[in-house]
């Protein structure tokens, strides 16, 4: 199987590597540090050994003084190992510790800040289109997403269904994150209707008939498991009244499409628009994570409902991006960008759509989604922005 070169560059000092399961963390690390001394905490024997006495990690590492790279896979399984790692870094700064995780929940509770300043943070995301190059197919990405485990599978739909079940069983149920798995499964279906929309917890609570505070906790679980995230409203130097609700996304378009219920009353174009917007969102997050320049991702929405899907706020540019699942550019599709420009005339405007032509209407560049995705590369000029 051909290995795809990822855009993530490894830090030179010790670091945490976070990313949902299946995003290729272990594969990437084997490429970067093939000689690393590795401890996989998903192995039952290692889990029992280090859970009983975390200090045994020190003994295991000191048995290999020649090893300069130490990899502890799925560190969230035994957060008690962090003090041991901390002391080992203090003792020998020439060694590089790499701690991977597919969940931040336990680490938050036990104080991952213990290694603040001594271990950097990196994240691995689903494939970017540019990483796949000629292998990228927009229709396939919209259907099954871009999680490497799914994309490289011969039966991606079946693996995707199993992927959701795996998280429910191994991460949610076995870790005791929820008391009632049925309630959580019902919540998952209800929250899927919020994908790419400002999230209203009260509405979700009514939909799945679960208390509001429980729904708040469930959303936190999805974020801690790296399965979902929220975008805040861009409010810098705001002159208008803005929405207060954050926008909600699942981390991968295929995961969203699998969780989202479908029936006779569900319009395919509505789901397709949400999938496309989510695909753009996950690319922007990956681009930010892999780039050297510090950039923040927002969306913009006024109380009157005027909205721009994404705002990239960096040290040099403000880029506003609107995404539409349409093959032609309509004047009404550009009104949000025009309103944003009225308030932020220094911004650069980009409209992404499913058409084939690149055109410019006034100060808005209209660009095919596929062209944009295939040109989006970390630390390179942003597509369509001079």
General description of the model:
The chain has 386 residues and is an alpha/beta fold. It folds into three domains: 15-123, Rossmann fold (3-Layer(aba) Sandwich); 129-232 and 247-267, no CATH class; 282-375, Trna Endonuclease, Chain: A, domain 1 (3-Layer(aba) Sandwich), CATH 3.40.1350. It has 16 helices and 14 strands. The strands form three sheets. A six-stranded mixed beta sheet has the order 9-10-11-12-14-13, sandwiched between helices. Strands 2-3-4-1-5 form a five-stranded parallel beta sheet. A three-stranded antiparallel beta sheet has the order 6-8-7. Helix 7 (138-144) packs across helix 13, helix 11 (201-208) packs across helix 12 and helix 13 (253-259) packs antiparallel against helix 14. The longest helix has 23 residues, at 268-290.
Name a few traits of the molecule.
single chain; 386 residues; alpha/beta; Rossmann fold; Trna Endonuclease, Chain: A, domain 1; 6-stranded mixed sheet; 16 helices; 14 strands; 39% helix; 18% strand
The radius of gyration is 22 Å
For the record, give the distance between the C-alpha atoms at the N and C termini, rounded to a whole number: 38 Å
Structural class: alpha/beta
Which stretches are low in confidence, meaning pLDDT under 50 for 5 or more residues running?
none
- The number of distinct structural domains comes to 3
Percent helix, as a range, is 25-40%
Q: Could you tell me the number of beta strands?
A: 14
Report strand %: 15-25%
Write down the overall mean pLDDT: 90
Task: Give me the side-by-side strand order of the main sheet.
Answer: 9-10-11-12-14-13
Principal-axes geometry comes out as: globular
List SSEs in N-to-C order. EHEHHEHEHEHHHHHEHHEEHHEEEHEEEH
Our count of helices gives: 16
- Biggest beta sheet attributes: 6 strands, mixed
């Amino acid at each position: 199987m051909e290995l795809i070169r990822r855009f993530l560059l490894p830090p030179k000092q010790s670091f945490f590597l976070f990313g949902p399961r299946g995003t290729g963390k272990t594969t990437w690390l084997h490429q970067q540090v093939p000689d690393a001394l590795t401890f996989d905490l998903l192995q039952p024997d290692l889990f029992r050994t280090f859970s009983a006495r975390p200090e045994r990690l020190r003994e295991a590492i000191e048995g290999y003084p020649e090893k300069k790279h130490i990899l502890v896979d799925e560190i969230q399984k035994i957060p008690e190992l962090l003090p041991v790692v901390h002391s080992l870094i203090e003792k020998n700064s020439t060694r590089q510790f790499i701690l991977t995780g597919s969940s931040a929940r336990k680490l938050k509770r036990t104080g991952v800040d213990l290694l603040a300043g001594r271990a950097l943070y990196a994240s691995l995301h689903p494939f970017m289109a540019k990483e796949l190059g000629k292998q990228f197919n927009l229709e396939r990405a919209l259907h099954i997403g871009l999680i490497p485990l799914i994309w490289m599978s011969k039966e991606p739909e079946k693996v995707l269904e199993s992927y959701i079940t795996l998280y429910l069983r191994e991460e949610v149920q076995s870790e005791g994150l929820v008391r009632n798995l049925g309630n959580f499964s019902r919540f998952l279906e209800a929250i899927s209707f919020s994908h790419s929309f400002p999230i209203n917890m009260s509405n979700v609570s009514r939909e799945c008939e679960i208390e509001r505070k429980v729904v708040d906790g469930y959303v936190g679980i999805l974020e801690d498991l790296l399965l979902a995230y929220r975008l805040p409203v861009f409010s810098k130097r705001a002159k208008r009244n803005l929405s207060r609700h954050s926008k909600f996304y699942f981390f991968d378009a295929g995961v969203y499409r699998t969780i989202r219920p479908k029936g006779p009353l569900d319009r395919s174009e509505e789901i397709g628009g949400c999938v496309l917007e989510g695909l753009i969102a996950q690319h922007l997050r990956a681009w930010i994570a892999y780039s050297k320049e510090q950039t923040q991702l927002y969306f913009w929405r006024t109380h009157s409902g005027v909205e721009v899907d994404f705002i990239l706020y960096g040290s040099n540019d403000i880029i506003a991006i609107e995404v539409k699942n349409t093959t032609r550019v309509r004047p009404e599709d550009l009104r949000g960008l025009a309103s944003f420009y009225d308030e932020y005339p220094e911004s650069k405007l980009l409209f992404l759509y499913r058409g084939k032509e690149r055109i410019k209407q006034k100060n808005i560049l209209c660009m095919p989604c596929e062209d944009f995705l295939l040109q989006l590369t970390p630390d390179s000029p942003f597509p369509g922005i001079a």
